[in-house]
Every structure is written in C-alpha cells, then in structure tokens.
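ok so i was messing around last nite and threw this chain in just to see what happens. nothing serious, just curious
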Amino acid sequence: MLQAATGKLFTELHNPQVNTLRGVVYTNLDLSTVGAISSAVGTLSAFDTVTTPHALCYELNEHIEGTPAAGLIASRMMGAYIDDFADVASFGFQAIFSPDVRIAERLLHLRTRVGESHPSELLPRFYEASLRANTDEVEAFGEFTEQLMGLKRTSYQSVIKAIRSYVAAVHRMSDDLDLAYTLLVMSIESLTQDFDGYQIVWEDIPPEKRGPVDSALLNLEDADAQAVRRAILKTEHLRLGHRFSKFIQDYLPADYFSVLASKEKHPIGKRELQAALKNLYGTRSDYVHTLKPLTKEFLHFSGHAETYADHGKLMFTFQGLFRLVRAVIMEFVHRAEKIAHEPCSYEYDNPGVLRISMEPSMTAAELTAETCPRFLEGLVTLLSKALADFPHWPLKNLRPVVEAGFRIKDGLKKSPKSALLAFIYLKHYYLGGEQGESSLKDSDVALLNQPGLESLIAQAIAGSDTEWPPSEHLKQLNRYYGQCFKPTGIKVPLLVEACMALALVERYRAVGQFQDAHDALATAAEEFPRLPCMRKVQIDQTTSIRWLDIIYPKRASGNFATLECHGL
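result:
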C-alpha cells in the first residue's frame, strides 16, 4: 500500500485528505551519525534511547482519495503500510527491520543449534548487532525508493513481491537455510515469469524431446510440419531455468564486476557467475520437488566468498546469492518504466480489505441472460436459509424480478431460460402468485421438467421427485458437480446439494433398484460428513424419502402450508 499512500493511483487528484501516521520499527541500523532519514516511503528518526535493537519512529504522510464523507475511508492506519516499509528498508539498507520487537530481538540475539553456523558466518552485515548508517547509504536509499514509487503499478507489485521473498530469506537464515536459499531464487523467478517477455522457439526444446518429433515430421510438407511444431510450442512449458539465467544476465548491472565488486572481500568473476548460474535453478528445483537439502560441507565451508565448489559443482554461496538477487532487483527497478499518475483500483491491496459475496437479498444486478443463473443461485440460497431457520427468515418482494423475467423470457436461449423458469417456479411455489402476476405457460413447465441441472436444483429444494430415469438423474447430478466451481457455473448451498443426493436415492428406491439406492445413500453419507442426519436415513421399500424433512428439520416441525405467513 505504500504506493497508494502517495496519491499517484488516485482517479481524482484534487484536495485529497492527508493524514500523518506514526509507528515504531525495530532495527540494528544506528542513525546517530546521519540523523533523520527522509525518503519517498516515509521518514525515520531515532528515539532518545540506547536499547538494542534500536527503536525508530516511522512517519508517513498518507493521502486518501476524496473529501471526508460518510461511508468513505478516513485512514487505513499505519498497519496497512508499516510491514511493507520494513521490508523495503531491510532490503535497501541490508539490515534487520521489523515492527515487531520480538522478531528483531530473535534475529539479532540468536542461539544457534549444535553443529550449525551462526547466520553472520554466511551472511555478513544483516546480523550485526549494530550497523552505523552513513550518508552514501541514505542517499542510495532515497534514490531507490523514489524510483520504486515511480514504477507502473504492475511492476511495483511484482518488485514488492520479490522484496518480500528476499527479506523472508533473511529471516529464515536463522532457522532454515535450505528454505532461505530457495526463497532467494524464487524472488528472482517471480520477476522472470512476470517480465522476461520470453517467447519460446523450437530450438529451445531439449534435443531428446525435439529429435523424435522432427523424425516423425520428415515426410510432411514443410508448412504442415511447422504447424505441428507451433501447436506443440503453444502448450510447452519448459526451460524455466534457461529463462531464469537469461533474465539475471540481462538485468545484471554494468558495474557488477567492477565498482560493485570493489566493495566486496571475495567478489565473483564473470566466468564464475555464468558457471554458477547453470546450477542455481536446479538447486532450487531439487529442494522444491524433493526437499533435497544443501550439503553440510556447503553450509560449513562456503563462508563469505561468493562461490563454493561443492562436490565439483560451482554454487553461489549465501553471500554471493544475496548480492546477486539484490543487484538484479535494484537494476530492474532502475530500468523499469516510471509513471507520475496511474489511476487504478488499488484498495484491495489494503491488508484490512477482503472480498466477500453479497448476501443474495442485497443483490441489485439487472436481470439479463447472463445474470439469470445468478438470480436462481441467490434465490435457492435464501430459500435454504429460510427452510433451515423456519419460520424466522424473511424474503424480499420478488415480484419485480418475476415481471422483468417474463419480459425477456421468450428471447432467451435454453440454459438461461431454464434458470429463469426455475426462479419463477420456486417463487410461485414458496411465495405464491400475486394478483395480476403472470404465470408459467404449459410449454414453460414442459421445458423446466426436461432433464437439466436447473430443474434438478429447483425440484430438489421444492421436495419434488424429478421422475427421470435414475441414470439421467445421476448424469445431471454429476453435471452439477462438474460446473459448480467454474466462474459461470451455478453453486448452491451444501444443504441443497444434500437434497439433490437424497433425491437420487429416492429415484433408485422408486424404480425398485434397492441396492443402487443403498449404495447412493452410503456415498451421500460420505460426501456430507457435516450432516449427521445423512447417516441416519433408512430406506423403506414402501415409503418415500422426504429429503426436505430430513435436511431441514425445523421446516418439518411446522406447518408447511403456512410458510409464507411466517415471514417468507
């Protein structure tokens, strides 16, 4: 949210609210020689204390879009910003920063396990008890944050994600070195897959996979052979390691082996880097897929050099990998396009904001061919709640929806029309028709009674037997489960799904397939373990299964005929 606080993402730039927020971060960075630090992401100043870790005051001017009004956010509060700031500051200064004093104390006062090295032996600076900030570092941090805030939104979000992974690797150095190493690789991998612009070509496919295909295409015309290769390339997901290495080399700073190397005790050479890159992605994959750890020799002997020959394989040490990853991320930020104003939707990035589905009775969507399934889904959800809490759950007046439905009904295709008809049927079934309200035609009823998932749902919540062959009922039930989690699918509450499952049991019972009925009931009991009532159902060859009474016992205890009079 740091970028949102600057106001560059606002649609309306005039007269924003400005709030001055303050918080505390704990760090091993000592500001005694530089005083306060001002940057594009806020200001740091020291308290008059001598504690370790040092407590610093973090101050941020938060811009809020729009003038104060009821229903608008007055402030996101410091909690929305301080964690991201701590990560950016930790990355920029190569120091420990955290708004949680316990985390800072744990990282700076480690008690290492027997046989393990202290993180400072593998990664200098970060884990020093106190770091004296200097003017050059402060200026570099100010320049970096200015460029970071200037990024396009998509670039900024990817960089913040990479920085978080980098800082998480610093923290994991204290308890899981294998995970720390992998997190470093993944921080660059995320940038690679978002921004490398890589276009796969046939020559990128490994020879052992490419050769047999080329042999099989020898007798085809060249145009046909190329068409086959293009089809394979569209679905081929390969050579991520190649893309990863290429991205690093493309974004390696020009002075990485000169000016930047002069600041290191044991800097890596260009030829060494290319050799170590060949093994880097494979090390990450070994851990991700098989949890293969780094060797004990690597952990004990790699030290502060930037490479280590581990059993004949040249590898980046933690020191070398941390420096490489940081340099690539900073170079990416330096080169990426900057933009002064970029209106966009940013509030979801607020850690205090979640997306939730509106309660169906509050939905005000316009009834169209596309929204008919949503209206059916919403009504079934409300009916399920009403039946579960009978007689205390009221429904809104649905007549306007029904009237709108009749206006568009005849122009709809089969699927949205079936959903609309199911909606109207359920409204009439539970709420009855009102004076002057249209009713369904015989042709509408005939269409609704045809096998389909909309009809299956409507008849299940109405307690009506479909009278379809059991195989057709099972087919539609499987069809429901095949689409219910798709963006355009219909998803009904668990209780309604249980009704549909018991309706299948009743179908088997009604046609005399008793063994199939017992099998379907056993399956239903396993699929709905949250409903103990499913395990109590008994199959009587002469008695119908009244699933609404089983699933909605409160509804069964009342007078069904007076459901509307009790609030629905």
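not much to say yet. Residues 558-568 have pLDDT under 50 and may be disordered.
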